[in-house]
Structure to design on (510 residues):
């Protein structure tokens, strides 16, 4: 096993370091809080000659993703980073990147969307982009943000996939808190990610091609969308395979979902990102107190959605709480709730599922709030309460 | 017009997995195989007695649909398979040698009905 270096750094620094090690040919980025220190650190690497990347400073995120699309179609390995309003401004290019099957890797520092204006963590930004055809990975910690970035590079460029990948980390909580983690040597990462070998590169002048063509009425647009669906479905075993390969090198787990305490649990919390730590902490406390036997299921890969894996994990639970750090206004619940409950629909025995919207705009997810979730779950499991209604966790 | 290197004969039957990745067209300059002449409602007609061979129409045609042979406007001036009838040539001609004529005007009433 290659030697790893333990460092203390913010999640953003871990992401910038992983990107440097993947050595993209092009980075086109625009700074936005709380993503800024990723692109700032990366610009420093370029200025210091530590990486040979064409760094394109653009006038907006719309331009950033447009430049990424062009560079990726040219055959380059391309990375960028954004957050919140920036991701929203990239909206149309997100669809273009996935439709053109361009393996761009982008870090997203999860932040609330205006209005009212807010710079703190929630998942509204990425959840708004969940149907844009990108593979979407989430990190709980700075370490996972580092690992996800390297795995994303391989997944995106895998011949069975060829789709853009977004790697998300929670704004400020993960992007700016100093966390302990390990990095590995450049050579190991270089060997792991290999070189991009594009099928159709604009810079391959011996084999000229057209990118971005028209497929209008009566044309094959419908078939192209079908092939995109097939590609993201195929990406699921690729995320698992590449994740397992990386896991073997670094000795850290990597799964589509990660479970804690599942074996003997009566109730479970399903959660994404940094709050998984709080959920595990309280579950551990409750077990130590001889209370609720609780499990935690963390989603690391949101697209493709691990529906079968979730169904297998949550089968037989007496109550499940899904924690959404994003709204889907007017829907039955938050995005994670909708998909989790749908994933459980085909189980023979119905599992009661309840939804909490929490932590919007960086609202604190205190341990007592997490305790309230488990207490509600106990009531539902014992039949004392019904699993109904959308609950705003901790809102006044 | 040369034949396409890329076999498009079954294009209408292709299944999702048969299309090139990401809607790429893996052959350059193949728009000539797409005949757009049917879009035209008026056709350009050149009067060779008025034409001064300035070649301005050849320069301005957005569809490269004006034929030139031996550095002169060819006798069969227009490539009607690709001319969309935009009228730029007629508008730009400095001596009004090109006239836009409605498509079908040469037909008799009986032919139009057919």
């Amino acid at each position: 096993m290659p030697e790893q270096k333990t460092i203390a750094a913010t999640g953003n620094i871990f992401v910038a370091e992983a990107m440097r090690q993947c050595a993209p040919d092009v980075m086109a980025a625009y700074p936005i809080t709380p993503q800024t220190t990723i692109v700032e650190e990366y610009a420093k690497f370029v200025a210091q000659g530590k990486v040979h990347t064409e760094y394109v400073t653009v006038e907006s995120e719309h331009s950033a993703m447009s430049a990424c699309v062009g560079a990726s179609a040219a055959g380059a390995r391309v990375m960028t980073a954004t957050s919140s309003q920036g991701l929203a401004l990239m909206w149309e290019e997100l669809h273009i990147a996935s439709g053109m099957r361009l393996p761009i890797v982008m870090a997203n520092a999860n932040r609330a969307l205006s209005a009212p204006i807010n710079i703190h963590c929630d998942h509204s930004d990425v959840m708004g982009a969940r149907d844009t055809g990108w593979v979407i990975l989430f990190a709980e910690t700075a370490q996972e943000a580092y690992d996800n970035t390297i795995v994303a590079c391989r997944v995106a460029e895998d011949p069975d996939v060829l789709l853009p990948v977004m790697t998300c980390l929670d704004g400020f909580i993960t992007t700016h808190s100093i966390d302990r983690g390990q990095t590995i040597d450049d050579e190991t990462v270089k060997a792991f990610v290999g070189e991009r070998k594009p099928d159709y590169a604009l810079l391959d002048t011996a084999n000229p091609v057209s990118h971005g063509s028209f497929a209008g009425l009566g044309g094959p647009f419908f078939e192209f969308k079908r092939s995109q669906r097939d590609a993201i479905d195929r990406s699921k075993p690729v995320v698992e395979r590449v994740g397992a390969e990386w896991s073997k090198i670094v000795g850290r787990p990597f799964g589509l979902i990660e479970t804690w305490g599942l074996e003997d649990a009566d109730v479970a919390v399903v959660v994404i990102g940094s709050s998984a730590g709080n959920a595990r902490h309280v579950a551990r406390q409750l077990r130590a107190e001889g209370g609720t036997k609780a499990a935690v299921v963390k989603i690391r890969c949101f697209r493709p959605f691990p529906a079968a894996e979730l169904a297998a994990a949550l089968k037989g639970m007496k109550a499940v709480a899904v924690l959404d750090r994003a709204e889907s206004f007017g829907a039955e619940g938050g995005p994670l709730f909708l998909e989790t409950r749908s994933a459980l629909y085909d189980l023979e025995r119905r599992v009661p599922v309840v939804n909490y919207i929490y932590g919007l705009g960086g609202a604190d997810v205190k341990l007592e709030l997490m305790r309230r979730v488990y207490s509600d779950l106990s009531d539902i499991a014992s039949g004392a309460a019904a699993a109904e209604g959308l609950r705003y966790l901790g809102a006044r | 017009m040369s034949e396409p290197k890329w076999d498009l004969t079954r294009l209408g039957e292709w299944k999702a997995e048969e299309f090139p990745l990401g809607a790429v067209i893996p052959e350059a300059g193949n728009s000539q195989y797409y005949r757009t002449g049917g879009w035209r409602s008026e056709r350009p007609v050149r009067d060779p007695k008025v034409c001064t061979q300035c070649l301005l129409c050849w320069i301005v045609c957005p569809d490269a649909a004006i034929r030139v042979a031996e550095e002169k406007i060819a006798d069969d001036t227009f490539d009607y398979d690709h001319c969309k009838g935009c009228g730029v040539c007629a508008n730009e001609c400095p001596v009004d040698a090109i006239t836009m004529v409605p498509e079908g005007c040469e037909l008799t009433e009986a032919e139009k009905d057919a």
